[in-house]
Amino acid sequence: MPNSRLDKLLEMLGKQPDDPFLIYAVGIEYEAIGEVERAMDYYTTVLDRHPDYLPVYYQAGLLSSKMGDNENANALLEKGISLAQTQKDRKTENELKMALEDLED
């Protein structure tokens, strides 16, 4: 079954290839259909090109954990916490801290 949302996002990304939200959103869609390696590639692209794009740290951290790479998951979540503190985004900081605590349990 075709994923029209993914198709639309890929089309938009073709027109705006450096938009961090679109890259992230494509990763979310790939993760949703079970293509986790491809999803991680998109998250990594956001991390490399837009390291201040806070939402990606949560998703990439959780996906790293699901993929069995807890070391990378911890590093991503910790970096996200630091960035959230810098950006004064307490809500995201707390979400990242809770995710990190869950990994440590």
Explained architecture:
- The protein starts with a helix and ends with a helix.
- It has helices at residues 4-15, 20-32, 36-49, 55-66, 70-86, 90-104.
- Helices cover 79% and strands 0% of the residues.
- The mean pLDDT is 96.
- The chain is globular and about 40 Å long.
- It has six helices and no strands.
- The chain has a single domain (4-104), classed as Serine Threonine Protein Phosphatase 5, Tetratricopeptide repeat (Alpha Horseshoe), CATH 1.25.40.
- By secondary structure, the protein is mostly helical.
How does CATH name the architecture? Alpha Horseshoe
Q: What is the percentage of strand-forming residues?
A: under 5%
Shape: globular
Computed CA radius of gyration, to the nearest angstrom: 14 Å
Gap between N and C termini: 38 Å
Q: The CATH topology is what?
A: Serine Threonine Protein Phosphatase 5, Tetratricopeptide repeat
The secondary-structure class comes to mainly alpha
Discrete helix count: 6
Number of strands: 0
CATH superfamily heading = Tetratricopeptide repeat domain
Whole-number mean pLDDT:
96
Order of helices and strands: HHHHHH
Low-confidence stretches: none
The count of domains is 1
Describe the largest sheet: none
